[in-house]
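Hi F.,

I've been meaning to write this up properly since the lab meeting, where we talked about keeping a consistent format for the predictions we share between groups. The idea is simple: the sequence comes first, exactly as it goes in, then the structure tokens exactly as they come out, then a line or two of notes. No screenshots and no reformatting. I'm using this chain as the first example so we have something concrete to point to.
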Amino acid sequence: MSCPLRENKAAGSKGDTLEKEQVKNKLTELFASGKLGIAPGKLRGDVFVPQSKSAAHRALIMAFLSGDIELAKIDESCVSDDIRATKRALLSMGKALDACRSGKDNSECSGENEPIEIDCKESGSTLRFLIPLAAVLGIPTKFVGSGRLPQRPVKEYEGVFEGSGAEMTYLDETGLSLPLLITGKMKAGEYKLPGNVSSQYISGLLMALSSADGASRLTLTTELESRPYVDLTCEVMRNFGVEVKEEATGYSISGEKKPSRTDDFEVEADYSQAAFWLVANYLGSSVNLKNLPKTTAQGDRAIVDLLSGLSEVEKRNDEAEERDVEAGRITDPGKREVFEMDARDVPDLVPVFAIAAAATNCITKIVHAERLRIKESDRIASTAAMLTALGIRNEITEDGLCISGQSAAGEKCFSGGTVDSYKDHRLVMAAAVAATCASDTVWIKDPVAVEKSYPSFFEDYVNLGGTVNGINVG
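Output, unedited:
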């Protein structure tokens, strides 16, 4: 499902001009072919960014725990596959709770109840958020998934479950995480997790424990990474009346106030998706993002400062090269000033930021990105492959990438070519952004992956003047 078409002041370009109403159907046909061709050309116009996927997951869970999932105002016309998976799962949990409570003596769920099955599709957030929730609510649950999700780890929950009253059982004999069976009932209490693993473990456990009977404490045994995502979790929890505090070694939940809210919770626009348009602007497009919040707990707002910092480094490198020319010296590209991106707190920005870095006169080192290897693709390797396909020199390092960028002043900093998205939504959109500054068509395999997070991305792209497989809205 895609978002309704919006009014954009889009630039015209060559190709078959279509009415905006026809774009969605045409793109659906193209998705079925498994490959899109994006013609070079800048974008121009207004765009409304979809709701924050990170905030929407959290809002749905807290609204569900408050007794009314509809308190989380999700734009159903623009919902991504991941958010659809979470909402569907919560509705199944709600039915299971209702069935248990309607039984003899209004009993809670127990091990005697048949497990419900929750299909998380390819959503790591859905899986890691709902594992502890099923345990705290005492709902016997079998989790399944598709794509790379069964290979993505959930082992950090093993230590949490020990002595908690709940159990997790792997049902696959080959070592995959899924199918996974959750039984028993997790109690409020003291729990420990490493801070340098996916923040989804921490966020999932905090939200689940907010509905447990009694106070809980979560101690982090290592330094916290991806802090902005946990900050967002706490902010949403507080918006639903939960008393959660950050302490020197972790977090505490008083247990005195269960999740509760009576008015709607509006989910703000997503900086993670806005980053693609902001990088397009960095490459010379003129996209006006109409609905971005100026104040937000979203960590991916860091894209604004990252692009600003990248630009400053390029300016200094350009000035150094001008001095070399005046002095009759040859500039050594390997001695340019280096820009370093620390990906610990903003891993989702790496693919599109790599496109910005490739179009900048500097060396960019992306560091502390190890966890990207277990995303929808091995996102370090797939980002490197994307850059190589587009003619950009790069090197995979122990914890990230080193990119040898070139100035976008010449307008055509990418070669064009075929990019394998590895069915990773962020690779698809990053490659499309690169096409705005390419010398030839950029072909993208498996573009339908955008349905995972930004279903209307290519509708917006075309409405902004982009040309996809020769079509545009003129």
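Notes:
The two ends are 24 Å apart (CA to CA).
Residues 302-327 form the longest helix (26 residues).

If this format works for you, I'll send the rest the same way.

G.
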